[in-house]
Amino acid sequence: MRPHLVDNLLVVGMGLMGGSILKAAREAGVAKMRLGLDKDPETMRKSLAMGLIQEGFTPAEPLPPGKTLIILATHLDSFREIVEELLPLLTRDTVVTDVGSVKGPVVEELTSLLGDRGIPFVGGHPIAGTEKSGVEHSLKDLFVGARVILTPIQETPRRALELVHSFWEALGTRVEEMDPHYHDTVFAAISHLPHAVTYALVKAMGDAEKDLGDLLRYSGGGFRDFTRIAASNPHMWREIFRLNRDQILIFMRRFHATSKEIERLLEKEAWDTLEAIMEEARWLRRGLD
Amino acid sequence: MRPHLVDNLLVVGMGLMGGSILKAAREAGVAKMRLGLDKDPETMRKSLAMGLIQEGFTPAEPLPPGKTLIILATHLDSFREIVEELLPLLTRDTVVTDVGSVKGPVVEELTSLLGDRGIPFVGGHPIAGTEKSGVEHSLKDLFVGARVILTPIQETPRRALELVHSFWEALGTRVEEMDPHYHDTVFAAISHLPHAVTYALVKAMGDAEKDLGDLLRYSGGGFRDFTRIAASNPHMWREIFRLNRDQILIFMRRFHATSKEIERLLEKEAWDTLEAIMEEARWLRRGLD
User: Fold this and answer.
1) Ranges of CATH 1.10.3660.10 domains, chain B
2) Cys staple from A239: which of A76, B63, B176, B221, with CB 3.0 to 4.6 Å?
3) Residues of A in Cβ contact (< 8 Å) with B202
4) Tens-digit pLDDT string for chain B (289 aa)
5) What one-character DSSP code corresponds to residue A275?
6) Distance of CA B54 to CAs A239, B32, B44, B50, B176, Å?
7) CB-closest option in B193, B212, B280 to A206
8) Which residues of A touch B266 (CB under 8 A)?
9) CA-nearest residue of chain A to B217?
């Protein structure tokens, strides 16, 4: 039998992400013991019944001995509280990582909080997910072929970074490293802004329906695909918007300038200019396939 | 053998749509003779070689005798010219329909132009397509299960409407009828505006890359799915924007008001209000699945 990467894997927050990590970790056999912690007792029961975890865990008991990887997979706003609660139990044989979609403020806060006790933190962001929530929607293949971005900083011990790197590779992902603030700039542009725009679009259409009657029932695949991300978890997105507000606002202002320009071109019936903009957008977009 | 629905099917414009109609019509055996007309001789040759059409067609020759269905599948801006060119060849045994994404002005213009000669026109809009163009990307299953909207008006002869209805049903679609102007309102909201917004988003990101360097190479499935429609044909969209400008502007102004409101809420850090808007959008969006 291949040696386990760690003795214990503790996933905090067993939603779609946490559940999928546990399923994939079970498949890959990366941990001797899979533990889970969730504030919802029903989720704890389900995760045990589904065999995702071998044992539930509460901060009232000590961690089992050995090398332990803790993955924070709750909403971003509970990271600090969880780490403070776990802190007394952690040894230098523990590495903490997370799966949050914002990295700058998270890496700063947790590196300092854990670093005071000599415990390493490695920021992580697996680029995977669905618009569904809950452990019952977790998928063992969610991460296969996905990209995981790790955001080490100067204080991050190399050994801890290597452990988290190996963990994600064992789950079939492609791992890359990025500066946490650069990560937040990139994701404000390619993920957070498109989400905000989609929420605006769906809300605007909902308001229009109140005035004009049935519009959305005719929506074909286009509108449904385009707006699927508006079915994502609102609380998760609230926290992403809160923690990456400044970067998102920068790109939102750029987007509004461009979109208002398109409105003006429609008003002026400047069809050639509009077609040139669409040509350019097509060219850019095709580069992504 | 099942009797053919028509003697001749003439598709004008053999791109993705026209080619897919011909493939589906061949499968369904709806026409004795499949004819095609395209301004590009290479497309004519390909369509013959692929067996999509049995014969090419030029307006210099007469149409074969019998019941004929003509489907206009070119860009919207060439409909008038094509109909004027074909007009001398058409008999009262001909029905003309189209697949354009804007209906109000098209139905008015072609009903009057053809009606002067006693030839019926039925406006049609199959809700299907991909971001690809060209006969080589045509798909025999493009329309299976798709919705087709027909937009008869008072002048539309019932017999012609029934023929076009039967044609699309034979291709496996679900047919509904709608007022052409109402069609344009609905599609401004659920299709044309989302396309305009996506073009704006991709352009804004492209401009940001010029200032900030590599952003889009990190884009995961989310951005790629969201922006796929920006790879659509610019000339087709120019014509849609031109012909449905007023309706699109109405929804674009609504969208900008909502989206600027979201920008202001981010600036004010009004997280509860933002979360409530996202809850509402999720609720609306889920209703579409």
Assistant:
1) 182-286
2) A76
3) 281, 284-285
4) 567 999 999 999 999 999 999 999 999 999 999 999 999 999 999 999 999 999 999 988 899 999 999 999 999 999 999 999 999 999 989 999 999 999 999 999 999 999 999 999 999 999 987 778 899 999 999 999 999 999 999 999 999 999 999 999 999 999 999 999 999 999 999 999 999 999 999 999 989 888 887 777 776 666 777 777 788 889 999 999 999 999 999 999 999 999 999 999 999 999 999 999 999 988 888 877 7
5) H
6) 60, 10, 11, 10, 30
7) B280
8) 196, 241, 245, 248-249, 252
9) A288
Q: pTM of the prediction?
A: 0.89
ipTM of the complex: 0.90
Please report residues of B whose CB lies closer than 8 A to that of A279: 234
Residue A286, chain B, CB below 8 Å: the answer is: yes
- Other CB atoms within a 10 A radius of the CB of residue B84 amount to 11
User: Under CATH, domain A6-178 is a member of which superfamily?
Assistant: NAD(P)-binding Rossmann-like Domain (3.40.50.720)
Distance from CA of A222 to the nearest CA of B (A): 7
Residues of chain A with CATH 3.40.50.720: 6-178
Give A48→chain B minimum CA distance, Å: 30
The fold of the B182-286 domain, in CATH, is: 6-phosphogluconate dehydrogenase C-terminal fold (1.10.3660)
Chain B contact for A254, CB < 8 A? yes
Over the range A141-172, which residues count as b (16 or more CB within 10 Å of their CB) and which as e? ebbeebbbbbbbbeebbeebbebbbebbebbe
What are the tokens at A233? 């978890």
How far is residue A172's CA from residue B182's CA, in Å, rounded to a whole number? 50
